[in-house]
Amino acid sequence: MAKTCPVLHKTSKVGGGYSNRTRATQFNPTGMVRKYPNLQKKRIYVPELKKTLTLTLSTRAWKTIAKNGAHSVLKKAGVI
């Protein structure tokens, strides 16, 4: 499973582990942390296609689909 949302193109990010106060007082390297998007696998029915699709999308993409409709969002993203 790819860790990318095909609608919003959300991928992982690398974040640091320091606050400026820690940097000023002592050196204790914590390393970089990779943070992944909140991807959910769900089934959605598209009435225009008369099909049920199983998609792995971010939760923000699900909210966009709920607001604008499945067919228009997925067509604009190039999924269908």
UniProtKB/TrEMBL annotation:
InterPro entries: Ribosomal_bL28 (IPR026569), Ribosomal_bL28/bL31-like_sf (IPR034704), Ribosomal_bL28_sf (IPR037147). Keywords: Ribonucleoprotein, Ribosomal protein. Pfam families: Ribosomal_L28. The keyword Metal-binding does not apply. GO terms for cellular component: ribonucleoprotein complex; ribosome. GO terms for molecular function: structural constituent of ribosome. Transmembrane segments: none annotated. Belongs to the bacterial ribosomal protein bL28 family. This is 50S ribosomal protein L28. It comes from Candidatus Zambryskibacteria bacterium RIFCSPHIGHO2_02_FULL_43_37.
